[in-house]
Write a structure and sequence with these properties.
808 residues; alpha/beta; OB fold (Dihydrolipoamide Acetyltransferase, E2P); 5 domains; eight-stranded mixed beta sheet
């Protein structure tokens, strides 16, 4: 217990150091308590412990004071808000790809202001265009504006970054790569492996399962669809995809019962395997400090179990926490550190009582299969519930929300977690070695990932899934932990409070035992499991196979455009790739079978960002034998990068003009109506007016896909007497006033119209005038907008048309 007292004293001293200051000679005061210890033998131990506690308290104050960064001209934050500067340094973490950007941390060592260069220290958080090829350790030069991190109403973002040692940010600077592979090689190797595993998961799994596997296995969340992220927030299950201390605690709580059931407690193999697993998991996540700290605490807990001194686990973890705070004092205010520490305490102090309560009345000599399954489920649920109980006030205080379905959602989702971890790991590693093998394991991983996604979405659909805008005060947090501490201390004397619950569970379990199979052999269990997985895969493949109809989907990609054409024979033609790298892939993952990894033709109607930004991920994730482009190209950094990528693959480019036709099988025809061979110039919007316009027809049904074509191009097509009549009109230029003239609409004469645009966009798309025009022509029920309906799918057998919409 002495170690516990000293560790707590250090933590209190660090906390006190943020509000008070003491002179450097203050620790000498603590030495005074050692003098009476020499003469008072009966109280010697107590006086020595008090002396060490006082030394730790004063040492914590001094350590915090020494950790406060200077604010002179040698500190990077000194130059915040001073206009354009040039900063040089090394990328100190693996760049994380977001929707339309890449985020990384730069460790600066020099800055140039007004042509004067000086050495500096400090880290800056950088947001750069996502298509830049950046790696850990690269030495780069940034030219842009250093700024203070912003403050948000519901989140103290500035304080969040400062706890990580970041006091400056820079958005979309001009970036130059000076050197590559310039830092610590073992970490570079780990990050390179992580990048390869990320690419493997992306290539072997459809979306959103691929992004979900990356988040769970590798801690990469930038590719997750926003709607799915919101579902995790609503159900309080974010810890399952955020590589954090709470996440690691639950994984450890899951691993222990599984390894004990598999290997027993003999020779303590289960401890060594759990240690190996959590450290392997930590390495795969890229060794972020938050996870390393959580893993150290988990290792301390396992070592205490190994030595048979679990009672001392609290003292050992407190000491580990104090050492971490001594290394970096500001980590004490880091929410992830707090959650790691508290969730691990919950695993040690709370989960054993929950396990005993749930196992009350169970015979210890029972060795049935169902009994083993029950033990794993009970232990996993107890670990999850203990982590939630221990961290609830901190999460509520920091994020002002609390999920009412967090425990049941986690309970139902967790059974798939071991399978997700194993199959995703197999998919990732085998995909690196031989992609067909990775795809095979990816089919199995897809089942468990889809189940996981389904559970989260089902619980998030509950109207009262979570409560937001909770205004909890610090004193309430302190009161909560005071009460919780009292409950834990007196738990042994208060077990009778739970008698009714135990009896209820005992009776329920008694009825369940009546249905258990007494003589189930191990090989039969595995055979049933394999047959079940194989049957699920076969039926899924059968259900998602081509149905002999033509499917045209206007995908919900936000303020941009992407269209999927799936022919009766199962060919996939994608027209445009959306405004960011993941939205099109995510939507395609919902429309295409999980085993279908080929896009037979990718058509980019023009080279503006809202139509091509997702091409990078499409070309990486899917096999694309041919790409078709408009002959009118615009020179931008994004278009240049895309053309470099296409050349590097390499991929044949087909330039298409008006008059060309493509046969897609079964009499399905795709005709190119625009651009003309003599490209338009001087129209005021040459890029859009030279974009590719397509007419898709099959028997009696036709679709007109107009890209961003404006009224100038519409008048040209009318004058050239192009075959514009179509049943379905994909409205041009996101429904803006610059397209869809009255004459054009009259000649097309559609029966339904679809518009692709974002729910919130600065252009005001679709315009009120165009919407009124379309509603008058085809009826309000036949006008669909992706911002309101989500992806819009038209299905036809060549004679009739059906429409399906998704929730946005």
């Amino acid at each position: 217990m002495s170690l516990l007292y000293v560790s707590v004293a250090w933590l209190i001293g660090t906390l006190a150091g943020s509000v008070i200051a003491v002179p450097a000679w203050a620790p000498a005061v603590g030495l005074l308590l050692f003098i009476p210890a020499i003469f008072i033998g009966s109280r010697r131990r107590a006086l020595i412990v008090c002396g060490f506690c006082l030394l730790a308290l004063l040492g914590g104050i001094l350590r915090y004071q020494s950790s406060v960064p200077p604010t002179d001209n040698t500190s990077l934050q000194f130059y915040n808000g001073r206009g354009i500067v040039r900063v040089e340094g090394n990328i100190s973490n693996p760049p994380e790809t977001q929707k339309t950007s890449v985020e990384f941390r730069l460790s600066a060592n020099s800055i140039t202001v007004d042509n004067l260069t000086c050495g500096v220290s400090g880290d800056v958080l950088v947001h750069a265009p996502f298509y830049k090829q950046l790696h850990y350790g690269d030495r780069i030069r940034l030219t842009g504006k250093l700024e203070n991190p912003p403050q948000f109403n519901e989140f103290d973002y500035r304080n969040y970054l400062s706890n990580q040692g970041i006091y400056s940010i820079i958005n979309y600077p001009r970036l130059e790569i000076l050197e590559t592979d310039n830092w610590f090689s073992p970490l570079s190797w780990i990050y390179d492996l992580r990048s390869r595993l990320t690419d493997s998961l992306s290539a072997c799994l459809p979306e959103p399962q691929g992004s979900l596997a990356q988040a769970i296995l590798l801690g990469i969340r930038g590719s997750l669809p926003q709607s799915l992220v919101q579902s995790f927030y609503a159900t309080g299950t974010t810890h399952l995809i955020a590589i954090s201390g709470m996440n690691l605690t639950i994984i450890l709580g899951m691993m222990l019962p599984l390894t004990i059931r598999l290997f027993g407690r003999r020779n303590q193999v289960y401890i060594w395997l759990s240690l190996l697993f959590i450290w392997l998991y930590t390495i795969l996540t890229g060794l972020p400090p938050t996870v390393v700290r959580a893993t150290i605490m988990g290792s301390v807990f396992l070592v205490a179990e190994l030595l048979g001194r679990q009672r001392n686990a609290v003292a050992a973890m407190s000491f580990a926490g104090a050492v971490m705070v001594a290394i970096e004092p500001r980590v004490l205010w880091d929410t992830s550190f707090q959650l790691s520490f508290l969730s691990m305490l919950g695993l040690v102090l709370i989960s054993p009582y929950l396990i005993r309560m749930l196992n009350y009345g169970t015979r210890s000599d029972t060795k049935s299969y169902i009994q083993s399954v029950k033990g794993v489920i009970v232990t996993t649920f107890a670990a999850t519930a203990a982590a939630i109980i221990a961290t609830f006030p901190i999460t509520t205080l920091n994020f002002r929300t609390f999920s009412l379905v967090g425990a049941p959602a986690t309970f139902f989702a967790m059974p798939s977690f071991p399978a997700i971890m194993v199959t995703s790991m197999l998919t990732a590693f085998t995909g690196v070695i031989w992609q067909p093998a990775g795809i095979f394991f990816g089919w199995i991983a897809w089942l468990f990932l889809s189940y996981f996604e389904l559970i989260v979405k089902l619980f998030s659909a509950i109207p009262i899934a979570y409560v937001s805008n909770i205004n909890i005060q610090p004193w309430q947090v302190i009161a909560y932990y005071a009460v919780l501490t009292c409950i834990v201390i007196t738990a042994k004397n208060r077990e009778r409070v739970f008698i009714f619950v135990r009896l209820l569970w005992n009776k329920t379990w008694h009825y369940l035992q009546a249905f258990q199979i007494k003589s189930l052999k191990p090989y039969i269990r595995w055979a049933v499991l394999i047959l079940f997985v194989a049957n699920a895969l076969v039926w899924t493949a059968y259900i998602t196979a081509p149905d002999g109809k033509l499917h045209v989907s206007i995908l919900d990609v936000g303020q941009g455009e992407s269209i999927l054409i799936r022919t009766p024979d199962g060919q996939n033609i994608v027209v445009d790739a959306g405004p960011d790298q993941m939205s099109a892939c995510t939507s395609l993952g919902k429309k295409l079978p999980f085993w279908d990894g080929k896009i037979d033709l990718l058509i980019l109607t023009h080279m503006q960002e809202d139509h091509i930004a997702g091409s990078f991920e499409l070309l990486h994730k899917y096999k694309v034998p041919t790409i078709a482009l408009s002959p009118f190209n615009i020179d931008s950094s994004l278009s240049r990068e895309l053309l470099k990528t296409i050349k590097k693959i390499p991929l044949p480019i087909q330039t298409i003009y008006e008059g060309q036709q493509m046969s897609l099988g079964r009499d399905v025809q795709l005709e190119v109506l625009n651009p003309p061979r003599n490209l338009r110039k001087g129209t005021g919007d040459d890029v859009n007016n030279n974009s590719i316009v397509l007419r898709l027809s099959w028997h009696d049904v036709s679709f007109l896909l107009t890209s961003d074509m404006g009224k100038d191009a519409e008048r040209y097509l009318i004058a050239e007497r192009a075959d514009l009549h179509s049943d379905i009109l994909k409205v041009g230029h996101h429904g803006s006033n610059g397209a869809t003239s009255d004459e054009f609409l009259a000649i097309v004469n559609p029966s339904a119209a679809a518009i692709s645009c974002g729910a919130v966009n600065r252009f005001g798309h679709p315009s009120k005038e165009v919407m009124e025009k379309l509603e008058e022509w085809v009826g309000s029920s036949n006008v669909s907008v992706t911002a309101a309906k989500g992806s819009i799918e038209f299905i036809t057998d060549g004679h009739r048309i059906w429409r399906q919409v998704d929730s946005p």
